[in-house]
């Protein structure tokens, strides 16, 4: 019996317009009602969890009763944080130390980049232009984002470690220059797409975070299912007994999967839950 379901967000639970469909919400709610622990597992920060999933999850002070949300536990920033949103506390953390984050930003000075950081569950963007683009692309999901004038100053002033740094490539040569810089930071890991790179502390992964949550909850690997589409979901597959790949998943993930379902544009998560969880 599946007790825990870890679900990637972008490219998986969200459709091609970054929305959670009615059918997907219905399937998730049915799994929750069956007693399955739903765990959003994402590269996003906590403040930018898809709003439709997050609504009603955290009890507001003064409420007479507790709202029955879809999830209590969430894995964010590609595994840098595992958070209990009911108790408002972190179960697991794997941070980029302040000194390393500042050294990386200094080493990339002069490269044409859009710079984003996740700090203390917040989604910080350097400059108002990036914030505007974020709102255009993600809509209400970007309401928790805020802009800073200087990312280095924001990191320097913060008492918290950095969960993740993202560089968006604003020129053709930017990616190659960032790759060269990162060769000098062996204590950091990087996951690339065609337009940006996510940078996090060495050893950080969705799989490591999922294992920490399994241990905390007393849930076994064989009692865990996961659904994903990207390379950063491979580690999560290694920690799960039932592995489900989206139809739009990268080839490596489809090869490692027990089952493959429809794409995120055709409600593959709803299909996965209906067939293999319920």
Task: Give an overview of the whole structure.
The protein is an alpha/beta fold and 278 residues long. The chain has two domains: 4-94 and 205-277, HAD superfamily/HAD-like (Rossmann fold, 3-Layer(aba) Sandwich); 98-201, Hypothetical Protein, Haloacid Dehalogenase-like Hydrolase, Chain: A, domain 2 (2-Layer Sandwich), CATH 3.30.1240. It has eleven helices and 14 strands. The strands form three sheets. Strands 8-7-6-9-11-10 form a six-stranded mixed sheet, sandwiched between helices. Strand 6 (113-119) and strand 7 form a beta hairpin. Helix 4 runs antiparallel to helix 6 (151-157). The longest helix is centred in the N-terminal third of the chain and has 12 residues, at 22-33. It is globular and about 50 Å long. 43% of the residues are buried.
CATH topology of the largest domain: Rossmann fold
Evaluate the radius of gyration.
18 Å
The dominant shape is globular
Per CATH, the architecture of the largest domain is 3-Layer(aba) Sandwich
Note the gap between the termini. Answer: 10 Å
The counted number of beta strands is 14
Give the low-pLDDT segments: 56-67
Per CATH, the superfamily of the largest domain is HAD superfamily/HAD-like
Determine the structural class based on helices, strands and strand pairing: alpha/beta
Q: In total, how many domains does the architecture comprise?
A: 2
Q: How many helices in DSSP terms? A: 11
